[in-house]
Amino acid sequence: MSENRRLFVCTNQKSGVGEDVAKALKKELKHQGLKKLVVDGHKLRTQVQTCDCLDLCKGCKKGPGAALIVYPEGTVYGNVRPADAAELVAEHLGRGKVVKRLRREE
Prior knowledge:
With about 110 residues, this protein is an alpha+beta fold. Helices cover about 30% and strands about 35% of the residues. The chain has one domain (about 1-95): Glutaredoxin, CATH 3.40.30.10.
């Protein structure tokens, strides 16, 4: 049995930071060995996908970072910068803990 987890990253900012966040997340997933895992006999694959708009403009256009949503759980993060990728991957994807300083209520 396999499960997929996806990180949707908004790329609708004028600065292009969303693309940089997506690249940093992909790099960290590989670096930390969390892109493909087998947990309790289940295959877990994590993908980073960019999208044009997440309809979270307060998290995207109002700050220097990007908005992103982690599925299937639906956790929303805002104002994420490339430098936050290592922490997000380690804490949220690796340990299952929400990064509270970046979390955004919908």
